[in-house]
Amino acid sequence: MAFQTQPGGGRPRITKGALYLLLAETAFFVVLIFGQKAGVGEFYRDYLMASGQTFWFEGKVWTALTSPLVLLPTDFVKLLFHGLILWMFIPALERWWGMKRLLTFAAWTSATAVVVGTLASSFMGGEQVVLGLDAFIYSSTVAFGVVYARHPVSFFGVLPLTGRQLAIGFCGLAAAFVLFTRQWHLGAGWGAAMGLTWLVCTDRLNPKLSYLRWKQKRLRRHLKIVREENEKKWIN
């Protein structure tokens, strides 16, 4: 039986934005595996991977965008997991938001995880790195749970869930991974990205709405009541 994760039913098909992210992460992974003898590993570690030392003490702030695309050679299972989520759930968000907004979402959730995760790493010795699209993956499930809260999700007809239940399950999965591996810096980064995603998607934190509300209050301050002499009307 097929699984259904997107409105309209049917088998999900990966969209362009999700495909670009998967190809980028896979390309970095393949280059690292086959280029280790050529010193690629040292280059990745020194210039592309974000840790408390490289990000906060060496000033390599660009790693906030490069490190999420890097996986270690031992992370093949993680790459498969990312591909599965990018194929099954991310396309629904991309069709709802559009490719540009999805890629922007991927950038700021990943960057948030790197900034917070490396900050936590700096208090733990500074050597712990924050790699991969995990923060974006988990944050996407949170967004899916908000946008498609009541939408049915079924894995091959075995485990029927709603979008909200799926999001809760993935939050639990992320928490269990952090507790089991004791990688607290990852927990800090993922938690920050997922929490910010929930605030933005539920409009509890919406910069555009906040600006419009501020602008509306400012306009009201300049309005005053004027009474016309001939006509007994009140106007602003």
CATH class: Mainly Alpha
Described by strand count, sense and barrel closure, the largest sheet is:
2 strands, antiparallel
- Output the radius of gyration: 22 Å
Query: What amount of the residues lies in strands?
Result: 5-15%
The string of secondary-structure elements, in order, is: HHEHHHHHEHEEHHHEE
Give the total of domains: 1
> Average pLDDT value?
86
User: Largest sheet, order of strands side by side?
Assistant: 1-2
* C-alpha end-to-end distance: 64 Å
Q: Which structural class do the helices and strands define?
A: mainly alpha
Level-2 CATH architecture: Up-down Bundle
Shape: globular
Description:
This protein is mainly alpha-helical. The chain has a single domain (16-205), classed as Rhomboid-like (Rhomboid-like fold), CATH 1.20.1540.10. It is built from 11 helices and 6 strands. It has a two-stranded antiparallel ribbon. The protein has a two-stranded antiparallel ribbon with strand order 3-4. It has a two-stranded antiparallel sheet with strand order 5-6. A hairpin with a 3-residue loop joins β3 (152-155) and β4. α7 crosses α8 and α8 (134-147) packs parallel to α10 (184-201). It is globular and about 70 Å long. It starts with 15 loop residues before the first helix and ends with a strand.
